[in-house]
UniProtKB/TrEMBL annotation:
Domain of life where this protein originates: Bacteria
One function term, GO molecular function aspect: metal ion binding
Entries under Pfam families matching the protein: M20_dimer (PF07687), Peptidase_M20 (PF01546)
Keyword flag Transferase: no
GO cellular component: cytosol
GO biological process, one term: proteolysis
Enzyme Commission (EC) number: 3.4.13.18
Natural source organism: Flexistipes sinusarabici
Cofactor needs: Co(2+); Zn(2+)
Protein name: Cytosol non-specific dipeptidase
InterPro entries reported in the protein's UniProt record: Peptidase_M20 (IPR002933), Peptidase_M20_dimer (IPR011650), Peptidase_M20C (IPR001160)
Record bears the keyword Magnesium: no
Reaction it catalyzes: Hydrolysis of dipeptides, preferentially hydrophobic dipeptides including prolyl amino acids
Amino acid sequence: MNYLKEFMEIFGEISRIPRCSGNEKLIAEWIMKRADDNGFETKTDKAGNICVKVDTGSDNTVVIQNHMDMVCEKDSGVNHDFSKDPIKMTIKDDWLKAEGTTLGADNGAGMALAFLLSEENSPKPNLELLFTVDEERGLVGASNLEKHMLTGSTLINLDTETEGEFIIGCAGGRDTLISKRYDFINLDTTEMFKLEIKGLEGGHSGLDIHKNRLNAIKVLGEMLETVNENYPVYISDINGGTAHNAIPRSAFAEFMVEGEITRKNIEDTLAEFDSGLFDLKTVKNRGSGFLTQDDSGQIVSMINEIPHGVYSYDSKMPDKVETSSNLATIKIENSSFICLVSQRSSNPSNLNNLTALIEGCALKAGAEYETGNEYPGWLPEPDSEIVSIFKNTYSEIFGKAPKVDVVHAGLECGVIGEKFENMEMISLGPTIIDAHSPTERLSLSSVEKVAGLLRRVFEKTA
């Protein structure tokens, strides 16, 4: 059966609805209306999670789980308001992508598949379509999921991004928020410099952290340190990154330096850096004040000292990342420098060691820190019934064995599994490249494969 027409109709509806993390009201209304139009019952909880009940008369109930929200990133210069504008999509060959923004296939593709298969007239178990809120900012909806929402003891998560790969375990993690209040001073200048890092590749801070992609905040820190070594820097504003789980693609700093220093002088100082990485220009002094040279240097040092990237690989599986850190966001707000760092690990001891290093960077600068938003890992159960069913069914359809793996990313399965102790779980999905970045794209042929696989599994579990 060709599922693409139906999938594109549903995914197209989803993509016309704003759904950045924390702004799920309209997509939640769409879910409730579509469920009602199909005669499906719904449940909600205080967090805003929704469970759509599809009663087929079966003795078996399976949970299909997705999150409603998406990471909202766009290319520099793209005129797109994520609070109201629909995602503009294009198709080239097998790939569906957006025009200059994230596509939202993470996790909109899974949402569309859930409704497509639940509405299809074919054998299936009772389904509970679970849609959680605010996953991208720290698994918030799953963490606050109430026990009354689910009755099924088997869960299929559709948030994995490689067709033919089944995820049966994931890393846990936490965030550290660093802040320090500073006094700003007035300086006699009408202009200042703006140094901007933009257009980097970015990516998912779990799935792509081992690819050594540049972090715009770290690049900015290195450049500011180089300038400061030659000319005393006074920072007025600094900002970078968008989300705890996205490798920062852009960052900027507005600053002045002492003396009659021109833009050409600064550019010469930065000659060792790739000129394609940054843009330097003069801008008007907005009158918001400046940090002292010492305080500016302290912030730059903190940015450069906070660890980012792979901290350790798994001793038993050397090609698997065990522990990592993402220097995710920085900003100045209400006279305070605020920095968010996200850590992941499948090893609690190394997670604690990495967190201690980050907290030590804050203490060295005399800053306050708060470590929290912790979420559990998901311990693999390779011999569970649902994993066996999917492995066997995949081999029957495609004539080859699927890849069964664990992933260095936080999946809601870990949180949900902690709440529902006897839940058997598996995660899969169509192929998505470069999630969390404007180059995100979805393989349409993989959508058909996943839909066909799920349909066959439903027939076996009806």
